[in-house]
């Protein structure tokens, strides 16, 4: 929210940014996204989202989610039970009606006690919540399995649950972190330190990769470490004329925490697979290999040589220089190395005293976009509004677009401190909702540039010297403000 308000993409000034920030906060609270923090939680920390599928952002689940297959879970001496291959990669009551103790009539039984509690595996080195994670016992569900070279750790707390599976004394013992986060691991196996492999290595079972209509059985821990995964599993890799990439090591990585020179590529063989809700990416470079595979995949983002070709691919986006996975730009934002450099500069340029703190920095001024003409501003605005509508329709469908937008007009009390009292906000707000909906209908009817009228309103707000009445200026202000409401609501 702070980043959105501070970025001021349309250059609307401090008053507008204040309105945007207030709108975001009000919409978030109104939507009930966060519950009140429990007294035992650290002051100032947000509680875990009630519907957080991948745990708290401060302690996210790890593992590959959304894949098919079965994995054999160790539940006792010489006894295993089949769980889904993507078990423990998201917050679910994984044991309910699966574990022998979680069957009807058993103790605690189906739907009761720890059987009904949501939990997932987490990275103990990326977990900063009130209740620390616990290490899985040696004879746990996946003996010998590891994540990024570390033994497996789990958390009920990140999923908003209480751990009643392990007794309190054992919990304290298992929560004590030895120097696990300081231990160096073999980068040739677990990937470059700046772009680590993801997935649970040593997980038993199988999963299916998909190529067209063909299903290709692979080990359940495919992509969890640097290995020549395709050499023994991909049909084209059998025989003397196998492609070079068959003998090259690779693994799945998180593009948002990968800061090596070679950008990871979007995977197409596990279309439903994801890591913390983001599509899967793979990298040969993190394993010290060159990538001869992506060059043979015509639909790979990296092979789209122009911005137009890149835009034609649903999962790709142009970063100004090259075509990359859309997720890298839309979800990750800044690349890790750029963020690190920015943080260093922020520390270096930090004000030395209160007087310096009050002076605006040149860097802050440089971030503010200044469109020199309406022609320069227009394409950016068109893209922005299309994104707002797309997000709205994704959640509410096209038939409910106008209703969803008008709901954002009923926020009078929340915005009393930032509204101009001389105009009927709700009335003008409803008009804009109708205008934006009409623009979407025109777009669906293939009419040229349907969002231009809305963009004109935004441009006029930035340039009040234009010939327009006070009432027109008010309408323009509300129009842009509603766009901000929509962005905050649907991002």
Walk me through the topology.
Blueprint lengths: L1 H6 L6 H17 L39 E7 L2 E6 L35 E3 L11 E2 L10 E2 L2 E2 L1 E3 L12 H8 L11 H4 L15 E6 L2 E6 L31 E3 L11 E2 L7 E2 L2 E2 L1 E3 L23 H5 L4 E3 L4 E3 H7 L3 H13 L5 H4 L4 H6 L6 H23 L4 H7 L17 H20 L7 H11 L7 H21 L1
Antiparallel strand pairs: 1-2, 3-7, 4-7, 5-6, 8-9, 10-14, 11-14, 12-13, 15-16
Helix pairs in contact: 2-14, 10-13, 10-14, 11-12, 12-14, 13-14
Provide the low-confidence segments as ranges: 1-51, 335-340, 353-368, 412-423, 466-478
Oligomer type: single chain
Total strands: 16
Distance between termini? Answer: 10 Å
Strand content: 5-15%
> Which outline best applies?
globular
How would you describe this protein?
The strands form seven sheets. Strands 3-7-4 form a three-stranded antiparallel sheet. A three-stranded antiparallel sheet has the order 10-14-11, with no helix packed on it. Strands 1-2 form a two-stranded antiparallel sheet. With 491 residues, it is of the alpha+beta class. Helix 12 (425-444) crosses helix 14 (470-490). The chain has 14 helices and 16 strands. It starts with a helix and ends with a helix. The longest helix is centred in the last third of the chain and has 23 residues, at 374-396. Helix content is 31%, strand content 11%.
């Amino acid at each position: 929210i702070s980043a959105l308000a501070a970025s001021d993409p349309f250059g609307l000034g401090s008053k507008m940014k204040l309105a945007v920030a207030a709108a975001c906060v009000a919409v978030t609270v109104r939507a009930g996204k966060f519950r009140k923090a429990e007294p035992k939680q650290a002051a100032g920390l947000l509680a875990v989202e009630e519907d957080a599928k991948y745990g708290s952002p401060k302690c996210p689940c790890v593992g590959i989610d959304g894949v098919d297959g079965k994995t054999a879970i160790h539940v006792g001496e010489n006894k295993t039970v089949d769980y889904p291959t993507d078990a423990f990669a998201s917050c679910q009551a994984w044991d309910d009606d699966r574990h022998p103790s979680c069957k009807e009539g058993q103790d605690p039984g189906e739907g009761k006690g720890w059987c009904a509690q949501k939990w997932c595996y987490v990275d103990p080195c990326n977990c900063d919540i009130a209740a620390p994670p616990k290490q899985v016992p040696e004879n746990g569900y996946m003996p010998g399995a590891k994540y990024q070279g570390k033994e497996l750790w789990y958390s009920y707390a990140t999923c908003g649950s209480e751990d009643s599976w392990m007794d309190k004394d054992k919990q304290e013992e298992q929560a004590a972190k030895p120097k696990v986060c300081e231990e160096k691991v073999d980068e040739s196996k677990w990937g470059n330190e700046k772009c680590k492999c993801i997935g649970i290595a040593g997980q038993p079972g199988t999963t299916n990769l998909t190529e067209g209509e063909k299903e290709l059985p692979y080990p359940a821990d495919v992509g969890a470490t640097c290995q020549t995964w395709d050499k023994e599993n991909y049909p084209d890799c059998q025989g003397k004329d196998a492609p070079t990439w068959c003998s090259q090591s690779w693994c799945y990585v998180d593009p948002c925490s990968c800061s090596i020179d070679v950008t990871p590529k979007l995977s197409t063989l596990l279309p439903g697979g994801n890591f913390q809700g983001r599509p899967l990416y793979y990298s040969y470079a993190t394993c010290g290999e060159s990538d001869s595979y992506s060059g043979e995949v015509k639909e790979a983002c990296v092979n789209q040589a122009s911005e137009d070709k890149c835009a034609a691919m649903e999962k790709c986006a142009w970063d100004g220089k090259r075509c990359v996975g859309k997720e890298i730009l839309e979800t990750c934002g800044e690349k890790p190395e750029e963020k690190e450099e920015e943080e260093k500069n922020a520390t270096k340029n930090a004000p030395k005293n209160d007087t310096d703190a009050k002076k605006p920095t040149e860097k802050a001024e440089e971030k503010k976009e200044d469109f020199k003409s309406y022609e320069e501003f227009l394409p950016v605005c068109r893209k922005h509004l299309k994104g707002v509508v797309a997000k709205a329709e994704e959640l509410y469908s096209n038939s409910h677009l106008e209703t969803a937008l008008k709901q954002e007009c009923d926020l009078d009390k929340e915005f009393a401190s930032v509204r101009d009292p001389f105009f009927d906000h709700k009335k003008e707000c409803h008009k804009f909702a109708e205008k934006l909906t009409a623009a979407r209908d025109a777009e669906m009817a293939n009419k040229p540039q349907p969002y231009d009228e809305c963009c004109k309103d935004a441009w006029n707000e930035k340039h009040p010297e234009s010939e327009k009445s006070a009432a027109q200026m008010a309408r323009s202000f509300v129009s842009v403000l509603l766009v901000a409401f929509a962005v905050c609501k649907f991002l």
